[in-house]
Amino acid sequence: IVMASSKGELNELLERLSGSKPASLSTGFKALLAKADPKASMSLMMLTKDKTNSVPLPDPQMAKTLEKIQDMSIEVTLTADIALTISMGTANAEDTKEISAMMAQALVQAKQLAPVITIQQPQLKPLVKVIEDLKTETKGNTVQVRAVLPGPVIKELMKLANPEN
């Protein structure tokens, strides 16, 4: 799978894959790649510096905060459970603290909202525990949000999706 944030970058990637242009990685991407979990089943990494300012958000303060994210990775690890880690890298400790506070607030809101949603859709009740177990942590200039979907919850959701089996 090849992904790029612009047509020019995509063409450059295709030229590198075809061998008509030498392959090279930017220093920022090499640093991001070095932080990748080798046990992850799937990883998506992106340099986001100067690329989030066009995202339309209703809250100008949130947009300003998101601009401070320099890079982002999403890693999924498939075992008996499904683990998801979203990492957001910043340039300095102050930006990390701001992103961490924003994510912590978002998790509080999600944890408050989850039980309310199950009143209207009781079949989603198994996901409440997953939402309650969401965690955020800071490592250096990186903020991580982690979620685990336990195997028994996956089985329960599969039964709900296909009640005949």
Architecture overview:
- With 165 residues, the chain is α+β, with helices and mostly antiparallel strands.
- The chain has six helices and five strands.
- The protein has helices at 7-18, 27-34, 60-66, 93-120, 125-132, 151-161, and strands spanning 42-47, 69-78, 82-90, 135-139, 142-149.
- A five-stranded antiparallel β-sheet has the order 1-2-3-5-4, with helices on both faces.
- A hairpin with a 2-residue loop joins β4 and β5 (142-149).
- The longest helix has 28 residues, at 93-120.
- The mean pLDDT is 87.
Quickly list its features:
single chain, about 160 residues, alpha+beta, five-stranded antiparallel beta sheet
Rg value: 19 Å
| Mean model confidence by pLDDT | 87
Largest sheet: 5 strands, antiparallel
Quick one: overall form?
Answer: globular
Q: Which band does the percent of strand residues land in?
A: 15-25%
Strand order of the largest sheet: 1-2-3-5-4
Helical run tally:
6
First and last CA, distance = 33 Å
User: Percentage of helical residues?
Assistant: 40-55%
Task: Give me the count of strands.
Answer: 5
Oligomer: single chain
Structural class comes to alpha+beta
Order of helices and strands: HHEHEEHHEEH
